[in-house]
Amino acid sequence: MSRLIIVSNRVAPISEGGPAAGGLAVGVYDALKETGGMWFGWSGDVLASGQPQIKVEERGPVTFATIGLVRRDYDQYYRGFSNATLWPAFHYRADLVQYDRHEFGGYCRVNEWLAQQLVPLLREDDVIWVHDYHLIPFAQALRARGVKNRIGFFLHIPFPASQVLLAVPPHRALVEAMCSYDLLGFQTRPDLRAFCDYVVNEADGAVEPATGNAPQVVNAFGRTLHAGAYPIGVYPDEIAELAKAGARGKPLRTLKATLHARKLIIGVERLDYSKGLVERFRAFERLLEHIPSMHDKVSLLQIAPPTRADMHAYQDIRLQLEAESGRINGRFAELDWTPIRYIHRQYERSVLAALFRAANVGYVTPLRDGMNLVAKEYVSAQDPDDPGVLVLSRFAGAAQELQGALIVNPIDIDGMAEALARALDMPLAERQSRYQDMIAQLRENNVSVWRDNFMRDLAGSGRGAMPPDVPQADTDALPAAQ
């Protein structure tokens, strides 16, 4: 039986309760632990010197193969091109894009080096599934080393419209590298359309009309591949069980004791400028401004785990959020009521699930997001007899599926405040109806369906012409030892 080989930039630490909330970590691990196989990628360690060595660890049906990065590779590949160039561009923040040719060279070099480390671990019939924007050139690097296995790629973040992607100088090399895969997967049909639009209008390629739910056939750069939309899911019933179990835990008991029967709005997002956290705080402030009767009757709990703390853009957003929460609390707080509880740390999935179940409103309002599994986890965790209400940004991929949410534009502060007010006062019958619509959708398209649909289409895809080497852009020669 073929093994599934998952390749991602980071192999997430896995605790007994699974990984902490995060689209790639949750979705990939839930998919892999059912089938068995290997998860290969960066360990998260940054080495000051020496030669990184692969560490292989067996954990049940899953083999974890991890390796560290030396400082230069971390700076150029991860901090540089991946997160200072691709992340803002793919999230429609061209104003934040920083580009350096040497960082692009490092990005290509590290992809080639990682591919070199994986090759000795591969078997002839392995199926390789590469994940996310850090590893766009990975298939090119494998093919250059003679790997003939089927290779699929899934993009967890949005794929931008052509005019936005053009802000990234090596945009053509990146899309050409994407065309080295047998199957490309995107979160939503708008992301798929954006990719196909680039192929047709910027790369002189062609896209054949799709038949039914089959992926589209793409001809570009002398190759034929397939591309489709595969919205990532969750296991809703498993999350519901986690939520019920967590309700007996100390964190939830402590929270309920301090709420004093006030209603709770919850947001859980990584600390990132794409998540719309500042706008979220200001909409909550507007709610308190416009509806004085809400004073001392509702609290906002925002959990924002740290991420990329060594990058200036993320340092800035942290300082801004701390200032906003302090300003709003200073304006409205009472001796026994703090309107915003802003927590800058990470919690286990079981704790988060219990917090979701206790919250009257799930507040998920990114400015742009590939899917946002927090929205799906919030719905999954609800008590069917007394469910909360999801307030969801139209720019999250999840909005394509969760029509029972209150859909908002995160730029419209007044509109978000009105949605919060409506959610807090929504009658039980309407809450139950909206919940039932959404939970049915989540069960129908859970993470197994996501995985199985992608793997089915990858098995049915055919590889076109052999791609050339990894794109070159002022890249240094690959050191023999790294």
Tell me briefly what this model is.
It contains 16 helices and 16 strands.
Write the layout of secondary structure elements.
Layout: E1 4-10, H1 23-35, E2 37-47, E3 55-59, E4 62-70, H2 71-90, H3 101-118, E5 127-131, H4 138-144, E6 151-154, H5 162-165, H6 171-178, E7 183-186, H7 189-202, E8 206-207, E9 216-220, E10 223-229, H8 236-246, H9 250-259, E11 263-268, H10 277-290, E12 298-303, H11 312-332, E13 340-343, H12 349-358, E14 361-364, H13 373-380, E15 389-393, E16 406-408, H14 413-424, H15 428-444, H16 447-460
Parallel strand pairs: 1-2, 1-5, 2-4, 5-6, 6-7, 7-10, 11-12, 11-14, 12-13, 14-15, 15-16
Antiparallel strand pairs: 3-4, 8-9, 9-10
Description:
The protein has 482 residues and is an alpha/beta fold. It folds into 2 domains: 4-233 and 447-460, Glycogen Phosphorylase B (Rossmann fold), CATH 3.40.50.2000; 236-444, 3-Layer(aba) Sandwich (Rossmann fold). Helices cover 42% and strands 18% of the residues. The protein has 16 helices and 16 strands. It has helices at 23-35, 71-90, 101-118, 138-144, 162-165, 171-178, 189-202, 236-246, 250-259, 277-290, 312-332, 349-358, 373-380, 413-424, 428-444, 447-460, and strands at 4-10, 37-47, 55-59, 62-70, 127-131, 151-154, 183-186, 206-207, 216-220, 223-229, 263-268, 298-303, 340-343, 361-364, 389-393, 406-408. It has a 10-stranded mixed β-sheet with strand order 3-4-2-1-5-6-7-10-9-8, with helices on both faces. Helix 2 packs across helix 3, helix 8 crosses helix 12 (349-358) and helix 10 packs parallel to helix 11. The radius of gyration is 23 Å and the shape is globular. The two termini are 32 Å apart. Residues 16-22, 464-470 and 472-482 have low confidence and may be disordered.
